[in-house]
Design brief:
The protein is α/β, with parallel strands linked by helices. The chain has 10 helices and 10 strands. Strands 1, 2, 3, 4, 5, 6 and 7 form a 7-stranded mixed β-sheet that branches. A 3-stranded mixed β-sheet has the order 8-9-10, with no helix packed on it. The chain starts with 36 loop residues before the first helix and ends with a helix.
Length: 400
């Protein structure tokens, strides 16, 4: 494990401090009375997570490494994209949290851990252990109520970034690794990102290189998915430079993730729905807009897969292998004979870099949401590798 050389952070605007637990996560049981409904739910989920850690013996596809090289926590964990990336590098996840119940089902099935719940609740935060190396978080993009030109810690209160910053302030890990949508750059006319960087650099005392927008298609998946990545290192580690990973030479296309078997008729569009999509696209085209469905050829890179809007319709494919056109769900019209279908959840999983032994224990609707919200694992792994290299360089330079 990486050696620790902790220095206290200094914050100028924090007016409250809640002492962290000194107990290991496996042994600590929180028994305070929940203060409200949200806290009560967080308390319930925390108890479930603790009991699962203590008593679960069920094998899982992705167990933690027996001899971990470093430790990390997984906030806004979703189905475990960050965990998949860092665990593959030898990291041990010592805490995870995710509020969505269905995502927790998928996470638990694959990693053998039941994530804690709402990270904004103290009943959840109390279980975060001390001494972990890296904080990982794909936090949601939210606006801040900023009074001045450059916002500070208190201006972020009430947002999920505040929760990330608060945990950084309390626990002071050696490094953090944050991911967000590309739109964070222009969000709030740039004030949102400026506030985030100001808090991380000037109030939490981390070295934070300029954030970078990377495209997952350059790191081993067949998907155009641009995301902004923000990494940081505690100032006492002496890190003054960081290079994000360079694109790899090998490129992938949809054919590399396409199902090798005939898929169910339920994934094929009905004739009526297909006509609706055609009409919708024609209306927008007449107005000079490029909105509407899109068919991805086998040799192409897909659009970004997202859980809302036209996420599935902008990634339709043609697959003529279906021979039985009997509907298996209630549809209006018939199954189309043009071979036009949605991608399957497994194809979405592959587009995000999940291996085929990653379990999908939920219904399709939840699976699409979960993979659409996930990080692209190979891009996270490539960046995490650079972070761990820097931590090891720092450790060696300090003679640890």
């Amino acid at each position: 494990m990486l050696e620790e050389t902790r220095q206290p952070a200094k914050l100028t605007k924090m007016k409250r401090a809640i002492p962290p637990s000194k107990q290991p996560v496996e042994a600590f049981v929180y028994s305070d009375e929940p203060a409200n409904e949200d806290a009560s739910l967080a308390f319930k989920v925390a108890q479930e997570a603790l009991q699962y850690k203590l008593f679960n013996q069920t094998p899982c596809p992705f167990p933690e490494p027996r001899q971990p090289k470093f430790s990390f926590i997984d906030l806004f964990a979703g189905i475990g994209g960050f965990r998949m990336a860092l665990q593959s590098l030898g990291g041990k996840c010592v805490f995870s949290s995710e509020w969505d119940a269905q995502a927790r089902v998928t996470y638990k099935a694959n990693f053998g851990d039941a994530p804690f719940g709402d990270i904004s609740q103290e009943a959840t935060k109390k279980h975060i252990p001390d001494g972990f190396d890296v904080l990982c978080a794909g936090f949601p993009c939210q606006a801040f109520s900023i009074a001045g030109k450059r916002g500070g810690f208190e201006d972020t209160r009430g947002t999920m970034f505040f929760e990330v910053a608060e945990i950084l302030r309390r626990k002071q890990p050696k490094a953090f690794f944050l991911e967000n949508v590309k739109g964070l750059i222009s969000h709030g006319k740039g004030t949102t990102l400026a506030t985030i960087l100001n808090v991380l650099r000037n109030e939490l005392n981390y070295f934070v290189p300029e954030p970078q927008v990377l495209n997952a298609r350059n790191y081993g998946v067949a998907q155009n998915r641009e995301r902004i990545l923000i990494v940081g290192f505690r100032q006492d580690l002496g890190v003054t430079h960081f290079d994000y990973p360079k694109p790899i030479a090998q490129k992938f296309a949809f054919r590399d993730v396409k199902e090798n078997r005939v898929v169910s008729a339920k994934y094929y569009l009905s004739t009526r729905y297909l006509q609706t999509l055609i009409n919708h696209k024609q209306r927008h085209a007449s107005k000079g807009n490029g909105f509407g469905y899109e068919i991805i050829s086998d040799d192409a890179v897909t659009n970004s897969i997202v859980c809302g809007g036209m996420g599935r319709e902008r990634n339709l494919v043609i697959d003529h292998r279906l021979t039985d056109f009997t509907p298996v769900t209630h549809i209006k019209g018939e199954v189309n004979r043009e071979g036009i279908r949605k991608m399957t959840p497994r194809e979405w999983a592959r587009l995000q870099g999940y291996p085929d032994n990653f379990l999908i224990p939920v219904a399709d609707a939840s699976a699409y949401k979960q993979f659409g919200n996930s990080v692209a694992v190979p891009m996270m792994q490539a960046t995490a590798q650079k972070i761990i290299e820097k931590l090891l360089e720092s450790q060696n330079a300090q003679g640890k």
